[in-house]
Amino acid sequence: MANRVIDDAIVVADTVTKLGPECEGRVVLGASHGGVYATYLACKARARGVILNDAGRGKDNAGIGGGDYCEPLNIPYATVDTMSCRIGNGESAAADGVISFANAIATELGIAVGMSAIEAARFMTEAPMSDTPPPAYEEARKELPERPGHRRVVLMDSISLVKPEDAGAIIVSGSHGAMLGANKLSALTVDGFAAFFSDAGGGKDGSAVTRLPALDERGIIAGTVDCMSARIGDGVSIYRDGILSHVNQTAQAQGGEVGMRAQTFIDKLANDPI
């Protein structure tokens, strides 16, 4: 769905990867995870304040990593509890989200843990606009060394960085495993051979793993890793550190199992001759 603007002050968005000029000077209440890359995208869109999903906080508190990123920019930042609303669904965040974390700037505005997300967003509308440009976020996409006759493995901090040429590749993403809206093609915009995500703490109604059955329907191997095992928003960590928490039926047929190291399964898939 298109981003919705409330009272000319708050933008409700399913994902921060689809923010436009409507965000400048307004508070972004988004359903993306609260890691650094997602926060960077909101700040790049000139948001006055940022509220995202804590994605279960996860390894190294990566799910609230945007809080530190926003501090030197003087931008208020908060997250909602992943179990209070459906990750990837902005309307759920606005209707049901409960604040689980606030940085010092947000706290000074009166935002507190336990407050509703929409109330916190209204508090953020009182924040002055930051005049500090957000630092660039680099190296968000990389590939493992390619071997002729074997599948490419592409690591990316956000699934929004997938490219048409990634069709047939093994895609390892730092994004959460939730569908964005009802369009099943949003689960993965290219026909990858396999795709892996973070389980973002599960989320309300198991929302954080809903890409997996949608990818089953397309015959695409898919899995999520436990958010406590790898840093959300960090494709390299998903690959190197992740422990599989959910796998779809297509993955199971290829030997994928819950509890397996993601790298072990991914390397097996990559090593199988094409």
Write the layout of secondary structure elements.
Layout: E1 4-6, E2 10-13, E3 27-33, H1 36-44, E4 49-53, H2 66-70, E5 77-80, H3 90-96, E6 99-102, H4 104-108, H5 117-124, E7 141-143, E8 153-156, E9 170-176, E10 194-198, H6 211-216, E11 221-225, H7 235-241, E12 244-247, H8 249-253, H9 262-271
Parallel strand pairs: 2-3, 3-4, 4-5, 8-9, 9-10, 10-11
Antiparallel strand pairs: 1-2, 5-6, 7-8, 11-12
Describe the structure.
With 274 residues, the protein is an alpha/beta fold. It has 2 domains: 4-124, no CATH class; 141-271, no CATH class. Helix content is 23%, strand content 20%. It has a 6-stranded mixed sheet, sandwiched between helices. It is elongated, with a radius of gyration of 18 Å. The protein starts with a strand and ends with a helix.
Care to give the gist of this entry?
The protein has helices spanning 36-44, 66-70, 90-96, 104-108, 117-124, 211-216, 235-241, 249-253, 262-271, and strands spanning 4-6, 10-13, 27-33, 49-53, 77-80, 99-102, 141-143, 153-156, 170-176, 194-198, 221-225, 244-247. With 274 residues, the chain is of the alpha/beta class. The protein has 2 domains: 4-124, no CATH class; 141-271, no CATH class.
